Amino acid sequence: MNLSVTNRYEVLNWKDRIWKIGDDGKLIPKMDSNGQIILNPLTGQPEYEFLEDGTRVNAKRLNHMDDGIYMAHDIIVQLTATIRRMQIQMELDGRVPGNSGTFADTLDGSTNKIMLDKAMTYVPLAIAIGTTEFKVASVEGFTTFTQVTIYDDEHSEDVVITAVGADTIAVQALKNAYKKGAKVARSNVEIDTVNSEMGVGDWQTYNVELVEVV
Predict the structure, then answer these.
(1) Which pTM does this prediction carry?
(2) Domains (ranges, CATH) in the chain?
């Protein structure tokens, strides 16, 4: 955010024109040295006496006001973008564990280039409730102190990896039981590039039927 304070707006302090009022309650016409009423050369109407001339409206003063309005508008736009960035940062820091705001679009024209972490594996054996360590088909892409989602067609939960072995992953005690083949993934998002949508990845079993061809 770059709020310039070098071009401060100068207040003009406009003043009203205050007319002189005669004893009869009417405006007092201006008189020349010969006692003749002075007429306005443009309108042909009489000029009148005043106590305060007031501030004249002209292009210079109106442009000054116009510049001030534009300057204030520009500052408000910058301030709004900064506030939105702060709101996003607070939401991310408060709701997403260990993210540090690294994948946020800050909405100020500068976005972080990110890629979806597609690390995924499956469990070759069923897992019981309360399990803290289980075997996986592969540990590639998984590191300690990162969050993963484990899910099958009935349950799903997010856990933090506490240790990674040769073919095992340790986590906090699981709240659910999971079937053989359950997925373990850094993200269970499925991206539909055709419709530009993100959906939840599925888990399913397949029945394979062997048919003899004669």
Answers:
(1) 0.42
(2) 120-200 (2.40.30)
